[in-house]
Structures are given as structure tokens and as C-alpha cells.
Amino acid sequence: MSTGFDYAALLNETVEECRPHAERGQLPSYIPELKKGNPKLAGIALQTTTGLFEAGDTRVDFTLQSISKVFSLLVAIEERGPEAVFAKVGSEPTGDPFNSIVKLETSEKKPPNPMINAGAIAVCSLIPGASVEERFGRIAGLLERILDRPIKIDEAVYQSEKETGHRNRALAHFLKDINCLEGDVEEVLDLYFRQCSILVNCADLARIGMFFAAKGINGAGTPLVSARAVRLVSTFMVTCGMYNGSGEFAIQVGIPAKSGVSGGILGVVPGRFGVATFGPALDRKGNSVVGISMLKRISEVLDFSIF
Ligand code: GLU
Q1: Atom of ligand 1 nearest to the CA of 196
Q2: I want to staple 48 with a disulfide (CB 3.0 to 4.6 A). Which of 37, 195, 273, 295 is the partner?
Q3: Is residue 220 within 8 Å of residue 148, measured between CB atoms?
């Protein structure tokens, strides 16, 4: 079917032009398993209502990392309601790094927002279920219904984070002390590490972006979460989805987006399409260098900033 616009050509040119920018970034070293990635990979995918368009390394699996925070937040809001969630986590962006502990003591005694690690760990503690498996099943189950396929985790990355996640452990214990973490600290961390280790590829992320763009309706036309939950989570993606680079990203690209330290970026153009990028080399804030360059370029060409 003709779409009236040659997305394939735009995406191919975009990957070619932006791939060399990987040289300006670095692989994350604080999770040993992620250090083994290939910094030269670059992919971009766009899911519209008429089809999927993709270029570059869009079928290479990587772990969701921080992108998983949007799914646990959706599940927590749906299952527990916004009031219960926002009793334990705030709604303000911070200018601090994603794994910072500093605001926990100096602000209003709750993690500032659900997109930083402390906030996401607090949100994980709110996912209902009698066991970690059951709770994880709620998060993975949502993704399975969005993508219409089974979800797997990367065992090596999961173990790597579990063994070396000392800072996340410190955050979780601090949260427990200030009454922002429900249940057992180690179980909540286990759930958090599992969700971070879920495997996806760039094409999957574009489909997920379309699910957000369609206000929570999957490709088969089934509503999976409420439009209200999607609106809340998309707003957090605008204000804090790109770590402490969210302001600049809003100016340069202008869409709800969430990045992860394995190099993925999930983007949503509300009512129009899902867009996703992959490029493992990161800037100093933890965002994919190539991903941001590619999104900047196509945002200008397709004029999709929401602002
Ligand atoms: N698993 C990573 C961590 O907890 C996620 C960080 C990220 O992608 O920003 O540090």
C-alpha cells in the first residue's frame, strides 16, 4: 500500500548519516555484561497504522533496562490506582543522574519521579502478586499482549545486575527506611532486575510506541490499559524519560520517549506512530548518542514535535 511518503528511504539515509556519531559515546561499564555490546550497531524503526518501516540493526536483541520502567508504572497505576502510586513516588523531574540517591534525603522523603531508579524500584514494590514470578508475570504479560509473542529475559544481564547492583540495593534499603517500598527489599530488587533484563529489539520498541500512540490499544485493536494510565506515563516520558537530558530532548525532538542504558529509545508520536532507535554507545547522561541524532533528524523531516 502506498503511504504517500518514502519512510524507508528516510530511515536508511538517517542510519547512514548518524551511525558514525557512535564514536562520541561509550558503552556503560557499571553493568559488566553491557560492556560486551557492539557500539557500532545502529537501527531505527517506525510503526505507523499502515505498517512497520525499519533500517539498520533493528532485529538485534537488547535488554529493556530503564525502558522497562514505563511498563511497571502502567501496571502499578492500573492495578493500584494513581493515588496509591503517587503516595510512594513524586512527579517532578530532577537534574540528577538516573541512579542518584541524593534527593531521597533532601526532598519530600519520597523518590522524585518513577523514571529514575529509586522511583522505579518503589513502583515495582507496588505490583501485586504472591511471588516475584507472579508479579513479573504481570509486567511481562502486558508486553506479551502488546507484542503478541512470548517474552524472555537475558539471564546473563540479569545475573550481572543482581551481582553488581550495589547502588540499586542502597536505594532500595533507603526507600524501605522512608516507607516508600512495600514488602521484602530483595524480592523487589529481583523484580526490578528481571524487568530490566527483558529482551526486545528495535522493531518491537516501535510497535510498543504505536501502542502508546494509540492510547493503550494493541495492533489487534484490543485495549490493554486505560487511556488515563497511558496519558500519565507519556507525560513522565516527556518530563523525565531521557534522564537529566529530558529538557534538551524536548527541545530537539519533542516527543514522549524513554531511554535505557543498553542503547534503546522508545518514542511516541501521539495519535500518529511509534518510533524507536537502537545504538549502544551512550552520552554522559546515559542516552544513546546515535539514537538521539537519528531522532533529531527525523523529527525535523517529519515535523513531529508535539510542541
Ligand atoms: N538496570 C539499570 C540500572 O538499574 C537501568 C538503568 C537505565 O537503563 O537507566 O542501573
Answers
A1: 1
A2: 273
A3: yes
Select from 3.40.605.10, 3.40.50.2300, 3.40.710.10, 3.40.630.30 the CATH code of 68-196. 3.40.710.10
118 lines ligand 1 (CB under 6 A): no
Site to substitute for ligand 1 among 72, 98, 288, most atoms within 8 A of C-beta? 98
Q: Is 9 in contact with 54 (CB distance < 8 Å)? A: no
User: Ligand 1 in contact with 168 (CB < 6 A)?
Assistant: yes
Residues 60-71: tens digit of each pLDDT: 999 999 999 999
* pLDDT at residue number 1: 45
Residue 129 near residue 79, CB atoms below 8 Å: no
Q: Where in the chain is the domain with CATH 3.40.710.10?
A: 7-65+198-302, 68-196
- Compute the distance from residue 117 Cα to the ligand 1 centre, in Å: 7
pLDDT interval class at 107 (50, 70, 90): low
192 catalytically annotated: yes
Residue pair 190/127 in contact by the 8 Å Cβ criterion: no
- Determine which one of 7, 15, 66, 197 is catalytic: 66
What percentage of the chain exceeds 70 in pLDDT? 98
Comparing C-alpha atoms, which of 277, 271, 278 is closest to residue 306?
Answer: 271
Do 34 and 28 form a contact (C-beta atoms < 8 A)?
yes
In CATH, which of 3.40.50.1240, 3.30.470.10, 3.40.710.10, 3.40.50.620 is domain 7-65+198-302? 3.40.710.10
Q: Is 266 in the pocket of ligand 1 (CB under 6 A)?
A: no
Regarding pTM above 0.85, the answer is yes
- Does ligand 1 come within 6 angstroms of the Cβ of 287? no
> How would residue 237 be classed by pLDDT, with cut points 50, 70 and 90?
very high
